[in-house]
Write a structure and sequence with these properties.
By secondary structure, the chain is of the alpha+beta class. The chain folds into two domains: about 5-150 and about 310-335, Porin chaperone SurA, peptide-binding domain (Triger factor/SurA peptide-binding fold, Orthogonal Bundle); about 170-285, Chitinase A, domain 3 (Roll). It is about 55% helix and about 15% strand. The chain is built from twelve helices and nine strands. The strands form three sheets. A four-stranded antiparallel β-sheet has the order 5-4-7-6, with helices on both faces. A three-stranded antiparallel β-sheet has the order 2-1-9. It has a two-stranded antiparallel ribbon with strand order 3-8. It is elongated and about 85 Å long. The two termini are about 20 Å apart.
Length: about 350
Amino acid sequence: MNARKLLLVFILSLVLVPLFSAVGTSPAATVNLIRNEIITYDMLDKEVKKYNAPEENRLDVLNLMINDRVFLQGAERDGITVSNQQREEMYRNYKKNYENSTGTTITQQQFDEMAINALGSVEEFKDALKNQYILDSYVDKVKGDELRSLDVTPSETEINNFYRKNKSNFYQDEHIKLAHIFIPKEGDNAVDSQNATLMNKIAADIKANRISFEKAVKQYSKDPDSVNIGGDIGWLTLSNESAIRALGDNFIDKAFALEAGEISSVIESNVGYHIVKVSVHNDGKMLALTDSISPEESMTIHDYIAQVLSNQKLEEAYNNAVDSLVKSLRGEARVRILYK
């Protein structure tokens, strides 16, 4: 059986083993490793419809459903279980991890809506987390030592071949490192006009050497994240669509027209008024294996490719371990396929 499809079923469909209570519903298959479970035609139809599987693939879908149930029964038999309390904790932790990774805070209602959009209901999302934990834990218990002993380090030949085949993907767009003095727009024409006038005066004072850029940052900038670090706002690439949407084409065009070491006049963006200083301005180029993957990263293209290839080998080994475990469990279980 295809391990990727099995994993997809665990993560996305994750149909909890329902009781066969629909009177008159015919069984398409029965599974018994530690208990008898019935997969009805209605269950099969629902699964086929969910993934829009072709009619000729209905038996394949049924076999994946059998694999799910065999695997869950095997995990339960061998001591891999998740309590309702643990299931709820997984859901809470997923929300925390999402917030930490995105740097945002969302309400419980917003998170619930995300879960519903992803898998149809909050309960199905919780089941997905639960079953993914069971899958990983069971594979680790049975095959973990074997997987950890594998050497997945790619050879230099593999790295070079990957680079040659994917070289066009390793293009680094034109980028600049910049700092700014910033005053936001307030939405009040009179106030915004006064702020624009102030910024023009600051720009003139910097140009006339009456004040340094760095001193002007501390004295005037209203950007709390950069005011104490010389106005530094990091790197900006010419193709950064989120920055273009946030700041507008006018800001992007004028900022990228600056040479390294140059300080701009006042630049109006969608959100306010800026005086920009560019410290580094690099043209776009194809990256070599020895180049860093980005200006802010020490990892080279060589190291990145090695990591990608190692992960691919680990994933292949993991999928093979799942296939092997499922095959073993199906050999132990009593499985009757009644589908015709």
